[in-house]
């Protein structure tokens, strides 16, 4: 320690996979996570997929001694699943819900119901305010034909914009979460480039854990083996990212991941491996972490790439909006026709009922059902179009700003 | 001008009431607004309820000469209706959509479909970055029995939190919009107290316009006279609020509202009056605008009052969630019973069909309809409960912080 004192910050990040009734051995694992966190006493714990508020409450009670401050972020139908435990006082919290998060009718993927968000807490970290974010982005279900890529890119962009707009409130920004993106994916390059966040894995002086820092590995007994077939070593989708805002420097001394079963047990914490970083935060002369001017060109390329993908999503959403709207109009026309026929029969225009009453009613109910469904779909895709269009616009503005920079 | 140069900023704020097919003489009024803005050349124009993107495009073309920078915020099914025109370069934009905004089934009120939001632009205002927000909160349809009060309070709270978290990016924060709250309402006291924003009307050295600064007045030929019966002078629900963040001072030199018909015409701009402020921004020693410590007690009272109202909304939402859930279970039971009866008949257990086929199918369709509807309602109210609960928690945290402050 030279000059100003150093804050040594130990951070723990884990996607807990704690879905009530669905996740295997959930209660046992949550207990295990709680026990380990109590023993290890980190400074800051960022958890995702704690969908049950009861699990959070149990953890809070268990961890009250070593992590006196905590927050659970509520959103969506199921919840955001995000929570934070901290040794440092939590000064303020903010929840930002992404404008797009999958489709309500994709019940099997369920992302829409979670109300995926980024939960931000402002901490008083001994010498400086720390902004800490816990988050999860939309899952990737099929890498080859990733229908959710535009949504994930909108989320990455909104996250980056959110960080840019809120990060001035603190000296250090610290993000931990399951980004559901591989390190070289356009979304993560966009997020890192546009915010200047640095990847603890790439910057760490020492690393210990799964090869390449992978956090979803075939060796984990809960992980989905078929999904990981193309990646025999696993994939890295959980990250700890950081940057210094003002006259501070942040260095990553050590990064670790868990490797399979927790010590003394036969099961791992979750289907994801936990990521643990030890950071050194020190007040110094010049700020670091801001994207240097020379990187503008590369950043412009990333923004262009992301904008192209968002454009693809926009056109798909426009097509879906159009076809659902057309279907709704057809259903409405059918209903009107039927109403006219029924009125005609009632008024005694026809000598006899042209259709059997039963089929007539069945058709009317079907038409009504289709009308309601397609109208809802049309509204949903209208919202989707608006948000994708808005993001495309914002990215264009960003590109212009990058090009105009001296 | 002494010492550092002063920036004289002229701001125009208007709820344009430009709803396609519904608002009276919309195109004429939008043209009129454009002409006036071009003649008057303000520095910053914040508009709400510009629901049609075509109207925005028309305005942008017309105003390109005097307001070279502009942004339209897209959200929701219909849109946020928010746009900003500026003489200063727009550096960045951010849209924050409130987590609660009325009910989708209240079609006659339509707030839910708008995706009401706060649109934020970061401007480069000659000497300092300015954060400018244009926004609208949920409308008040019945002051005596205001079912939307909890939603509006959640919005006011989220707005205040959003401003607190993002305002460090600028030296001056400037908010213009239709807050749909009277000056003494708990929501506006909460917003002002929690952010330290100052009311241009209260601070202005000179005022000119409708009595008490009212912006919804019976004299306006488009305003709803019956709504304004209890308020013969009108009500003030459109505001320009501001605060200085860092070493700047902001003073309001003049505030004006329009009074009925625009000059040279027989119609006003909108059913709301426009608010125009002339602000002086100067770099100085100490920051102003932050809520002083002595005001903490009063602020705690406001937060407590708001939290009580949010609690009332929470209990109502819980009741609605419960009753919609119960209804869904009943509909499901009925469907299952019918399925069992139908299967029984098919399997030849009964000697004859106990019910007429037509009524049987009608009942099944009805039960299915009720099931879909009540399940959707249940999900919606679950989200509502989560957001109200989350806000209640955040307010409690704020109260604790206020009480613990030395």
UniProtKB/TrEMBL annotation, chains A, B:
Belongs to the neutral sphingomyelinase family. GO terms for biological process: sphingolipid metabolic process. One of its GO terms (cellular component) is membrane. GO terms for molecular function: metal ion binding; sphingomyelin phosphodiesterase activity. Pathway: Sphingolipid metabolism; Lipid metabolism; sphingolipid metabolism. Keywords: Hydrolase, Lipid metabolism, Magnesium, Membrane, Metal-binding, Sphingolipid metabolism, Transmembrane, Transmembrane helix. The chain crosses the membrane at residues 328-349, 355-377. Coiled coil: none annotated. It comes from Daphoenositta chrysoptera (varied sittella). PANTHER family: PHOSPHODIESTERASE, PUTATIVE-RELATED (PTHR16320:SF24), SPHINGOMYELINASE FAMILY MEMBER (PTHR16320). This is sphingomyelin phosphodiesterase. It is a multi-pass membrane protein. Residues 15-272 form the Endonuclease/exonuclease/phosphatase domain.
